[in-house]
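2 proteins. here.
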Amino acid sequence: MRFAQHLAVLLLCGAPLHAEKIPLTDLGRLELKNTQAEVTTYRGRKALKLIEQPSGPGQLLAILRAYTFHDGTIDVDLAGALSRTAVKSDRGFIGIAFRMQSDESHYECIYIRPTNGRAQDQLRRNHSTEYESLPD
């Protein structure tokens, strides 16, 4: 199943005063998987835009590997929309993966499905925000 979408990530990390704010607009800090990335302006703020590669579907990942993070808070502003080539039934997925193992085989993820959140059907709206722990 192909889920074409655009993703703009505006900022990551920061809760307590001692927290480090990590701008995702430095492309040199990111390892990109199945995506192209560009720095853009979204609603007046500097943003990271991820775009599905034309070569095929898959999870679009921008992995921040140079930081160790233990039990804390991740604050992020996300925005997303289905691409122009998406079919009407596509839902889209926008999220944050954490506790990712170095081989990417295990991680936890929380994501939103923007088209579900705006659906008239209550069952779809019930599946607007979801959590999963992969691969289990």
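next one coming up
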Amino acid sequence: MNNFLPSPFEWCAVSPGDVVLTNIEDPFNVAAFDMAKYPITNAQFQVFVDAEDGYSNADWWNFSPAAARWHIGKEPTPIPFPGDDLPRSSVSWYEAVAFCHWLMAKTGEKIGLPTEQEWQRAAQGDDSRLYPWGTAYDRLLGNTGEAGIKVSTPVTQYPGGASPYGVMDLCGNTSDWCLNEFNMPDSVSFSGSEIRAIRGGSWALSQYSALTNFRGYNYAGDRVNYQGFRLVRHT
């Protein structure tokens, strides 16, 4: 992957385990997977935008009729916060999934967006911690509204905020699109509901939204300047 996408990029191995989602009684068993250490950056997403067979290629948008319709006449939004190593935000769920399909074709690896269950497993580990680093909030460990920065920051800026598996920026900076439907967390159909889960808080939101068990959502076509995405890989 490092030969294809600009740095920083690396995978963090996440061990299997159970996850309990807020307001859902039964636990989910999550199999082992790899999660990208950082959110997808401006420079990394731009590779997809600039590629001749990338963003403009209708093939990557045929995963659902809604995505194909959404893509007609669309261009990527201007980068909200310039900087190669800042997370790419103002990206819709459709755009994030299309990026994953393109990257799978390029690398031959099974790459996608995390489910909420996978995201929470990567953030909490085995002890159901409230934040990736532990139980107490610390504004110096993540770019939430309390930090007062009010813009995105480089994805490498908060090494002390790493999760038990070494994943960065799971608390603040930009929130992450998840694969599953919000109202049906076990549904990962590409053609299902357009209401998709998001996780992780952001620079624009309070620490409460950055709790590892906080569930948020947005519509798949929405582009928000404090929302981006990261990748998972299955073997």
